[in-house]
Amino acid sequence: MNLILFGPPAAGKGTQAKRLVDGRNMVQLSTGDMLRAAIASGSELGKTVAGVMERGELVTDEIVIALIEERLPETEAAGGAIFDGFPRTLAQAKALDEMLAKRGKQIDLVIRLKVDDAALTQRIAGRFAESGRPDDNPESFKVRLAAYNDNTAPLLPYYEGQKKLVQVDGMGAIDAVAGAIDKAFDAPR
Description:
Blueprint: E1 2-6, H1 13-24, E2 27-30, H2 31-41, H3 44-54, H4 61-78, E3 81-84, H5 90-102, E4 109-114, H6 117-131, H7 138-152, H8 155-161, E5 165-169, H9 174-186
Parallel strand pairs: 1-3, 1-4, 2-3, 4-5
Helix pairs in contact: 2-3, 4-5, 6-7
């Protein structure tokens, strides 16, 4: 099964994806993790990505799609992928559908974590105080949240039209959100 966890930055996608990886033997494809790994490598690509992320901008589709495509054989061997932070745009969603179709696969389920923007801003400020991660900077976060609302939220009708979208209240306790995700995951299709 291929699943997209959909929601703005700091909505809890990574937390829920890790739980699904442990419980369902799937592979998490977190573009954020992949991009941070590129930065940590010190490569030219990593330096480019670092500058983009520090400004709160989105990395180009070409870079992100190449990172995802590189990992697809791993997801197939494990029985499925959890896409976390991807796709972010309609162009990426269509590219993902095409990539998977060439391999005889598809997106089976899209779970949207519905959250409150003001609560997310408070959450990210606390996370930045703990981690110091440049992409958690509250000012950069506001740019990322605006980019999500402008570019990514419009994907909802795309997946709703495919009858793959399930909405989950992402503001509850981690276990409550996990339970709602499990219910959606296990529902007959």
